Amino acid sequence: MQKFIVTGMSCAACQARVEKAVAKVPGVTGVAVSLLTNSMGVEGTADADAIIHAVEAAGYGAKVHPRQNTTEFDDSAGLALQDTETPRLKRRLLWSVLFLVVLMYITMGHHMGGWPLPNFLVQQHLRLAFTQMLLAFVVMAINGKFFTSGFNALLHRAPNMDTLVALGSSVSFGWSLFVVVQMCRLVTQGGATAELMDLYHQLYFESAAMIPALITVGKLLEAKSKGRTTDALKELIRLAPKTAILLRNDQECEVPIAEVQKDDVFVVRPGASIPVDGVVLSGTSAVNESALTGESIPVDKTAGDAVSAATLNQSGFLTCRATRVGEDTTLAQIIRLVSDASATKAPIARIADRVSGIFVPTVIAIALVVIAGWLLNGQSVAFALARGIAVLVISCPCALGLATPVAVMVGNGLGAKNGILFKTGAALETAGKTQIMALDKTGTITSGEPQVTDLVPSHGHTETELLEAAFALERKSEHPLAKAIVKAAEDRRLPVHEVTDFQAMPGNGLGGMCGQRRLRGGNEVFLRNMTSLPEALVQTARTLSSQGKTPLFFAEDHTPLGIIAVADTIKPDSAEAIRQLHGLDLKVIMLTGDNPCTAQAIAKQVGVDEVAAGVLPHDKAERIQALQRHGITAMVGDGINDAPALTRADIGIAIGAGTDVAVDSADVVLMNCSLLDVTAAIRLSRKTLHIIHENLFWAFFYNAICIPLAAGLFGWKMNPMIGAAAMSLSSLTVCLNALRLNLFKVHDATQDRPRKGTLLSTPLLAQSPQPERTAEMQKTIKIEGMMCPHCEATVKKALEALPFVESAVPSHTASEAVVTLNGDFDAELVKKAIEDKGYTVTGME
Q1: What is the arithmetic mean of pLDDT over 124-136?
Q2: Less Cβ around it within 10 Å: N or C end of the chain?
Q3: HSE of 582 in the Cβ direction (CA atoms, 13 Å)?
Q4: Binning pLDDT at 50, 70 and 90, where does residue 662 land?
Q5: Strand partners for 300
Q6: 584 within 8 A of 775, measured Cβ to Cβ
């Protein structure tokens, strides 16, 4: 996407005009203009010069975004967000008020309050008229931008809000000038004082000056409010460290952040921010990552752990090696995602866009009809003009144009603060409309790493004896389950016993000598050949298996020591998150490649509504497509092996992205691994959409009521100055309403409200057609040696690395792997890939 800064836009009509002009440029496939940030994103192959020329031909200015052609992430990232408008508006308003006070003193203070005037102006109506004219002209000149922009837009046949202001003020001034000419003629002819006073009271110089001044007040308040909507993004940009302390020739030297290169070694002292993404070489510390993840609890870091730019080193001294610098850092990617998302349009914004395109011409036409109508009704020219001017200045296309982007900007910023990144405005809108939530199991509902869940010692033995024996054996093994047992033993600080004559038999178990004792461990089949297993122990193992756990038997000589159960444990907050998803009226479905027994056990514990087990990655995408027939479907996964399903879903949510925030297949990226962030994303989306609906209602309601009121249809003779004040307040109201989002607590489930049309009680998987596979597309490979789901994962990874394998579903219980093909099958390559991992191929079908 090419990014540009656009200048000269004042309302939604300008935004629509720029989009229309750029869309006509050859090679442009998509364009989104943000009135809020004065930026434009363009998709396609069009040349930047051609795009800029199109914008200028439409009457506006454009230049390439300062970050467009740079590889370094520096202060220029915030250039488009700098509030340069507010200081200019303040100066303009100050000078306007100085002259306007004098003008209002004459027109209101003297004539209505009887305040004194200098002698040379007392009872001198013509002099007073010229004084008012001069003061009004100065105020209009100070606010000349309204007139240059408004009439320029009118010449380009694209009238905007400035056109309405310019027309209203100019007509007031022009009519008053005409009256002054009549007064001069009357004076030269020696006319009566009464006639002169009658003409004097038809002057509207105060309106001509007050209209642009009041609109400037509104613009100033609006600019300040709009600036606050980008505070979250500015805060992220401010987090970017400016310098880093590098180690060069064993000497510390401080350099600008732009000079840090990949693989440079840098140090971080306690209390300092980490300058770039890296990996810890030495030292230990607690690092506060709340700036990126929203999680306030510090994370312990030691050698080998990854660290991210802009996180705060709280305690220890760290030496790190840079892995990602410049725009590749996690912080830079987050800023880019939030900025790009705010530059895109939510689908609901199209309503305002369609109206904005015809709004101003329609208002001008209504003003002309109102003037003509009152003249035909017998009213004076001054009365008719006052009603027409009121219609022009009270109409507000700005409120329409800001209704959606201000809410999207605040919503994106609030999401970023909480580790929730929406890639587009459409994603922010659609997430809240989700009806079906499909969840992957591994890494989403579960932790994705095996842990010891149960210690079941046999009669006469203790948990410590069992775990010590297992620890001694498993220290020598590289199996994922062994690492879980070793970690459990180390957590308990159990003593280390050396094992000799160690033997590992893939698919069966382990053996070795610990002093004079022969230790053995493995599955039930392996241990039965070595010793007699008590029936109670066997039944316990089967119960554990039914819960989705892998039971491992251990024995000393010929005496069973007991069972250690290992499983991919459920995350602590998964059950609560699924309960909250139900509270949001979402149907929750688990799609997993795991075996049905394990999948059903996990689903029962967390409260998932329906389960589809043994599903291939490609089949997940087809299951998502089938679910989409029943409602808007979101898919939550890790963004890698779930990529097809994430892409297929209406909303793809990548969970636990960590430092890899640019997950291509996802629409929403969650920095943390918590499912509660999924509910927070849904909640934030719904609240943002609610704010947008309120803004659009206000924008339409305001114009629907105020235009007839200004036209005098309800019997009220509205002064044009009141119309200008109302116009200013309407835009401010929209901005302030959007800022209410900053007070919203995304993790607060107490405010959740059920919605109509729930699918909670409707079985969906039974109604969805199952993917069909022909025999020619599949092969079944018989494999010995798989003991657990982690063995399955190893075999799966090895098979799916082959070019002719689309997907593989191994099963350690059936001792086989079902392979789906996308090319010519090569049996020798398959056998080599499996046996290189330590397993044995016994046959192929």
Answers
A1: 86
A2: C
A3: 14
A4: very low
A5: 286
A6: no
Integer-rounded Cα radius of gyration of the chain: 36
Q: What is the pLDDT of residues 489-510, one digit of tens each?
A: 999 999 988 888 888 775 567 8
726-730: which pairs have CB atoms within 8 A and are 24 or more residues apart?
A: 726/394, 727/214, 727/215, 727/218, 727/393, 727/394, 727/395, 727/396, 728/214, 728/215, 728/217, 728/218, 728/219, 728/221, 728/222, 729/218, 730/396, 730/398, 730/399, 730/698, 730/699, 730/702
List Cβ neighbours of 219 (8 Å cut-off, separation of 6 or more).
Answer: 85, 89, 728
State both tokens at 521: 């461990």
3-state secondary structure of 227: helix
CA nearest neighbour of 635 among 663, 618, 655:
655
d(CA 233, CA 214): 30
Contact 553, 401 (CB under 8 A): no
Tally of CA atoms within 13 A in the half-sphere of 119 that contains its CB = 0
Nearest to 586 by CA among 633, 655, 644, 641: 633
Q: Using 50, 70 and 90 to split pLDDT, how confident is the model at 267?
A: very high
Task: Report d(CA 184, CA 652) in Å as an integer.
Answer: 74
Adjacency order of strands within the sheet including 28-34: 28-34, 39-44, 2-7, 61-64
Question: What is the DSSP annotation of 371-403?
Answer: HHHHHHTT--HHHHHHHHHHHHHH--HHHHHHT
pLDDT, tens only, 419-451: 888 888 888 888 999 999 999 887 888 887 888
Q: Which residue has the tokens 């500015």?
A: 234
Q: pLDDT (tens digit, 9 = 90+) per residue, 289-338?
A: 877 776 667 888 999 999 988 888 988 899 999 999 888 888 887 777 77
Name the DSSP letter for residue 316.
S
Residue 398 to residue 379: CA distance in whole angstroms: 32
Q: Measured between alpha carbons, how far is 432 from 406 in angstroms, rounded to an integer?
A: 18
Separation of first and last alpha carbons in the chain? 49
**pLDDT tens, 771-807?**
555 545 778 888 887 777 667 778 888 888 888 887 7
| Residue 358 three-state SS | helix
Strand order in the sheet with 420-422: 420-422, 668-670, 651-654, 633-637, 436-440, 587-591, 610-612
* Closest to 742 measured CA to CA, from 424, 429, 415: 415
Compute the distance between CA of residue 721 and CA of residue 321 in angstroms, rounded to an integer.
64
Whole-Å CA distances, 196 to 113, 134, 189, 199, 720: 21, 19, 11, 5, 24
**HSE-up of residue 246 (Cα within 13 Å, Cβ side):** 17
List all residues 6 or more positions away from 53 whose beta carbon is below 8 Å from its beta carbon: none
| Listed residue (532, 593, 602, 535) closest to 567, CA to CA | 602
| Helix-then-strand count for the chain, H and E | 29, 30
> Which helix or strand (DSSP H or E) is residue 362 part of?
helix 349-376
> Would you say how long the chain is, in residues?
845
Q: And the tokens for 813? A: 């219980």
Q: Under a CB-based contact definition with an 8 Å cutoff, are residues 764 and 628 in contact? A: no
Both tokens assigned to 802:
């082959």
Pairing type for strands 306-307 and 277-282 reads: antiparallel
Number of neighbouring beta carbons within 10 Å of residue 182? 15
Nearest to 391 by CA among 416, 364, 412, 372: 364
* Residue 414 token pair: 């609030």
Give me the helix-helix angle, 330-343 and 405-417, nearest 10°.
160
CA angle 151, 155, 159 (to 5 degrees): 65
Write the pLDDT tens digit of every residue in 584-622.
Answer: 989 999 988 777 777 888 888 899 999 988 776 667 888
DSSP, residue by residue, 650-698: SEEEE---TT----TT-SEEESSS-THHHHHHHHHHHHHHHHHHHHHHH
CA geometry: angle at 327 spanning 325 and 333, to 5°? 115
* CA gap 748, 753 in Å, rounded: 12
What's the DSSP call for residue 495? P
The residues annotated with a catalytic role in the active site are: 440
Reported pTM: 0.70
Residue whose structure tokens are 């880019």:
336
